[in-house]
Amino acid sequence: MKLGLVASLTLAAGILMIGFPLAAHHGNVAYDTSKAVILKGATVTKFVWANPHVFIMFEAKNDKGDVLHWAGEAGSPSALGPLGWSSSTLQPGDVITVYIYQSKTGNPVGRLNRIVLADGTVLKDSALGYRDE
Amino acid sequence: MRTSSIGAIAGVVALALSSIVLAQDAVPGLTGVPQRPTTLYNKLDAAGGKAGPAPRRDLSGSWTGPLEPLKLGDVPALTPLGQQRFKLNIPDPFRAHSNDPWATCDPFGFPRSTTNETRGVTFAPLPGRLAIMTQYGRIWRTVWMDGRELPKNVGARGGPDPRWYGYSVGHWEGDYTLVVDTTGVNDKTWVDRRGYPHSVDMRAQERYTRVDHDTLELTVTVDDPKIYTKPFVAVTNRFKWIPNQEDEEQFCVPSEMIDYIKIIALPAGQEAVTGQK
User: Fold this and answer.
1) Domain containing A95 — which CATH number?
2) Tell me: the pLDDT tens digits for B173-215?
3) How far apart are CA B207 and CA A90, in angstroms?
């Protein structure tokens, strides 16, 4: 018997979720917001202008000189638009500076504070971009 | 193997969509951290200024809101049927067993389109009717203004079918308040994000009052004797006139959510932080 896609997804989601409670809930913070990590010379690999949140994928070297593949999220397109962002803000290959609140897991993922483009343009995030880091 | 891979995708979808919920109140991963969201409506609200008088019997144009968090009403005692239905609805897609229709980007239906997100609303008069278009999800409802009555037998044999947004008629009370009555809403939809149910026979009323040129207040009342022991206010909301009339776009997009969760939310380890496995 072949289940329809939706039926399969629904069933599978049900099975999965019963045994696998997911995700953050009240009063928890995934990101270390005490201090932003500053990543200079970051090279953009992909810029995703999407809901619920815009995110940037980029490469940056750590202290040892190893290249890490990062992902940094910002606000929604409608929240970033008034702050000067657009879907054409970044292209793969752009070199930028990234101020980011990293995941407490230590994974190279986080919430942006702001980015600085090669021409010096500063683009702040809609949530914590008001902070000077 | 096939089932498990589908399960993984579905789980990702469910988690992804659930993040929308937090997105309204706070940013996922930043719950509890003071934020200054910059949005069109906050900017307008902050701008303030002195508005002129409201034009007579005219809401046409685009509005943005809520200007502050939506106020959901206090729900009265449910009937036995209402209790039975309410128990089946498990809100908050962040919870393991949630069955919120939002978790799969299903249509909000009415009145949830007025109690959840909204982001903005546009009124577009047409001959004999009025289109009310809600920004979040690009929801388009038709409100008949030609004096017709609402259908009385929706969902019954020989009657019209229930619809996601039901059947709506409207009229003016005085010069500044538009009253819209709706019935015949598909009962798969919820009244709000808390999971309150309704029947197809629910009568819901929106009252839009244009306080001045730039300010619009909305109160939505639900009357559903099959489910609730008395009528109640489902939500109050406030909208601001958009000076340049350029509204925004916002959708619940499953494929984008899948990417967001795969690339951001899961690696960020939000479940690890909560202590849940």
Assistant:
1) 2.40.50.140
2) 999 999 999 999 999 999 999 999 999 999 999 999 999 999 9
3) 44
Work out how many domains chain A is built from and give that number.
1
What is the phi/psi pair of residue A118, to 5°?
A: -60, -30
Domain span at residue A50? 30-124
Residue with tokens 């971009």: A129
Residues 72-101 of B with CB under 8 A from A: 94-98
Q: Which residues contact B201 (CB under 8 A, 6 or more apart)?
A: B154, B183, B224, B226
Chain A within 8 Å of B43 (Cβ-Cβ)? yes
Type of residue found at B192: D
Q: How far is B88 from chain A (nearest CA, A)?
A: 14
Residue in chain B closest to A54 (alpha carbons) equals B260
Dihedral-angle region of residue B207 (phi above 0 means left; psi in -120 to 50 means alpha; beta otherwise): beta
Q: What is the pTM of this model?
A: 0.72
Token duo for residue A15: 């099975």
B250 burial via Cβ count (<10 Å: 0-12, 13-18, 19+): buried
